[in-house]
Amino acid sequence: MQDKQTSVILAVGAHTGDAQLTSGMLLARHAQQGDKIITLDLTAGERGAPKGVSISDFRKRNIDGAAAFARMLGGKSIVFDVPDGELYPCKELELRVADVMREHKVTQVLYHWKNSLHKDHVSAHTITKNAIFFASLPTFEHPLPPARITRAMMAENWEDSEGFQPYFYVDVSDGFELWKKAIVNLWLAENSTSFKYLRYYEALSVCRGALIGKQHASAFAAFDYAKRQVLEI
Fold it and tell me: Does 22 score more than 90 pLDDT?
């Protein structure tokens, strides 16, 4: 029997917490299966600092929290130095993300849906989508070989709900407990006064799971061109 080939899963978020909350259960499941996990936060979300905490201190707290989350999954955390709220699509950032994909031989990418009430999320979608192009293009001059990305999916995020239609439903029941232990490393999960993040994503996983007969599930969107299936008759 042929051994399962190890996958390298990259989850990209606009801020620390985005990828970990929306894709974290699937990351945890992959980690338990022996796959490699990378989270890439394009900003540290430092301008969401609570009252009494400086932006610089909150940035450090978020970076440390993202690192702790990844460590519990046996993975790697990367946080770019882009200021929170100032994320804009540009070739420089697209190539930086593409470099991560090539360097780590990424095979699957999880990222933001194209529409959002948060401008940084929209920018993160465009940056990641174009980075996949640059990372995969064999004729793009680069010292590293192209990444062989076999799947790219867009995660369900309460801020990115406009036009979001679930296409992939993934059973994440096995990864749920690990995710729940790891996600509390991020301040946002339990301490935000504006939104109950942990409660929402835990409940969402139960709802999505009910639709496929599982305890917990995560839903992801895909572009129309990725939905074509060939029926052999």
Answer: yes
Q: pTM of the entire structure?
A: 0.95
Q: Residue 233's pLDDT is what?
A: 78
The reported pLDDT for the residue numbered 4 is: 63
β-strands 168-171, 217-221 pairing: antiparallel
Give one DSSP letter per residue of the chain, joined into a string: -PPPPPPEEEEEESSTTHHHHHSHHHHHHHHHTT-EEEEEEEE--GGGPPTT--HHHHHHHHHHHHHHHHHHTT-EEEEEEEPTT-----HHHHHHHHHHHHHTT--EEEE--S--SSHHHHHHHHHHHHHHHHHH-TTS--SSPPP---EEEEE--GGG-TT----EEEE-HHHHHHHHHHHTTSHHHHH-SS--HHHHHHHHHHHHHHHTTSS-EEEEE--GGG---PPP-
Architecture of 8-226 per CATH?
3-Layer(aba) Sandwich (3.40)
Mean pLDDT of the chain: 96
- The angle subtended at Cα 38 by Cα 155 and Cα 216, nearest 5°, is 45
Please write the tens of the pLDDT for every residue from 84-95. Answer: 999 999 999 999
Angstrom CA distances, 147 to 92, 128, 139, 212, stand at 18, 14, 12, 32
